[in-house]
Amino acid sequence: MKALFRKKSLTALMEQTKDKEHSLKRVLGPLNLTLLGIGGIIGAGIFVLTGQAAAQYAGPAIVLSFIISAVGCAFAGLCYAEFASMIPVAGSAYTYSYATIGELLAWIIGWDLILEYLFGAASVSVGWSGYVVSFLRDFGVNIPAALSSAPFAFDHVAGWTSTGAVFNLPAVLIIALVTGLLVVGIQESATVNDFAVFAKITVVILFIVFGVSYINAANWHPFMPANTGTFGQFGWSGVFRGAGVIFFAYIGFDAVSTVAQEARNPQKDMPIGILASLAVCTVLYIAVALVLTGIVSYKELLVPDPIAVGVNAAGPGLFWLRKFIKIGAIAGLSSVMLVLLLGQPRIFYAMSMDGLLPPLFSKVHPKFRTPYVTTIATGVVAALLGGFFPIGALAEMVSIGTLLAFAIVCASIIVLRRTHADLPRPFRTPWVPLVPALGVLITVVQMLFLPWATWLRLIVWMALGIAIYFFYGRHHSKLAAIKADAWNK
Fold first, then answer.
1. Which of 25, 384, 421, 458 is the most buried (most CB within 10 A)?
2. 25 HSE (CA, 13 A, CB side)
3. Which residues contact 310 (CB under 8 A, 6 or more apart)?
4. What stretches of 296-318 show up as alpha helix (H) in DSSP?
5. Do 444 and 466 touch, CB atoms closer than 8 A?
6. What is the mean pLDDT of the segment spanning 126-140?
């Protein structure tokens, strides 16, 4: 039992970054990191899930769902900022957990992050496909539904059903394109992301500024539709379920922490990137949710492109904005996929460097200095998920994985303050243990409001991960090898 909770020392973590054979290129500054966070956050949350969560769970009160999620994210973001400034290495919450609460829980969080990033990229690719299909249709180019939809649909009443489609071709193609870009290099990927972020923020601000004058206050009544009699469908239970579902929209700042080993001055720049991106995006999310549900009835928003529906509902006065909205959504969702597909291979990289996954997972390209094997593998699996499964089922998996990761990070800060009280902290989470405890509470409550089917899929995923750890990870752990050598000597 003791071996399951062995911890990696912070000294060992920092020494790991000096390994030239497996080193990553440090090229990212505070602006890059902030834009990387915004690139990951502003995307499916605004362009897809806002409408879907409003239509199915909360109505106009989806605004309250965003505020609840933002509060939980703020607490988690403060905890992430402290960790990222103390332990500026690749791996995000996995690495932080390994240094504070032991190997088994680090493996669990690492396996959970795979769920978060892999399924996140897949679900965003489905939203991207919806906007691209709609955009091309404006020019008379029609992609048949058989090649632009998932062959399976899912809801919590009927379960899984067949749609008659073959697979979602645009979703597969965009994952392949982004994967290729990430193999070429982190600097090139960050540059592309910067342009995409500016494009989508411009479009979001245009929608807010010009959409305000088209708000019909009658669409906000009732602001919180009465519960239908089913838990999670409107009323306060719907608001909390909506918060749990759209929590997926906030995972971008988490992805910032995965590139700590590629930041030029991580102790200073990582907290800036995490907290600045979270603050900007929270304000934009709330504003868009208010404008969208004010322009059009929430009942009409269960579509792949709700912002475009809002522009159409405003009438001819906003038709000029329609194509810009779609271009911004396409650029925005592209940057989200870039951030998520960038983060996932670096989780694999960190776990492989610790021996918990095979050495192939930490192989770095000799020219590009990127973890190209895991980048390609991640891209292939994400493309298959995006091509064959609907966005609703994928997004719920991402949300529960993200919530679990944030809860563990918040709890780890409390542990770290007790076990490593004297370590230098360039950034300190305020009011410990209150802030991290509230972070744990809010994230766990949101998890409890998610549907049982989502919990079941999480349990199956975690069972698979624990099996891999006991059959491979614990036997090949580098910490285990170090302790065995010490014992033999």
1. 458
2. 17
3. 207, 211, 291, 292, 295, 296, 301
4. 306-314
5. no
6. 86
Cα–Cα distance, 206 to 46 (Å, whole number): 14
Question: Distance between CA atoms of 16 and 123, rounded to whole angstroms?
Answer: 33
pLDDT, tens only, 360-373: 888 888 777 778 88
Q: What is the DSSP string of 349-365?
A: HHHHHTTSS-GGGG---
**CA pair distance 93, 75, nearest whole angstrom:** 15
The owner of tokens 């049982």 is 452
Three-state DSSP at 396 gives helix
Consecutive H or E run containing 368? none
Higher pLDDT, 81 or 59: 59
Cα distance between residue 489 and residue 117, in whole Å: 42
Map residue 155 onto helix, strand or coil.
strand
Q: Are strands 152-155 and 159-162 parallel, antiparallel or unpaired?
A: antiparallel
Q: Give the phi and the psi of residue 430 in degrees, each rounded to 5.
A: -75, 155
As given in the structure block, the two tokens for residue 203 are 């479009």
Distance (Å, whole) CA 402 – CA 238:
19
- Specify the 3-state DSSP secondary structure of 168: strand
| Adjacent-strand bridge partners of 162 | 152
pLDDT > 70: what percent of the chain? 88
Task: Return the residue matching tokens 């919180």.
Answer: 224
Three-class secondary structure of residue 20 per DSSP:
helix
Q: Please report which confidence band the pLDDT of residue 313 belongs to, taking 50, 70 and 90 as the band edges.
A: confident
Report pLDDT for 252.
Answer: 67
Q: Which tokens in the block code for residue 151?
A: 């062959």
Q: Which residues of 430-469 are buried (b: 16+ CB within 10 A; e: fewer)?
A: eebbebbbbbbebbeebbebbbebbeebbeebbeebeeeb
Token readout for 164 is 């008659």
Sequence-separated (6 or more) residues with CB below 8 Å from residue 390: 126, 150, 152, 153, 154
Q: Furthest-apart CA pair in the chain: how many Å?
A: 80
Amino acid, res. 149: S
Closest CA to 121 of 337, 432, 424: 337
Whole-number pLDDT of residue 288: 92
Q: What would the mean pLDDT of 228-242 be, rounded to a whole number? A: 90
| Beta carbons within 10 angstroms of residue 154's beta carbon | 16
Domains and CATH numbers, the chain: 2-484 (1.20.1740.10)
**pTM of the prediction?**
0.77
Provide φ and ψ at 160, rounded to 5°: -85, 135
How far is 435 from 445, CA to CA, in rounded Å?
Answer: 15
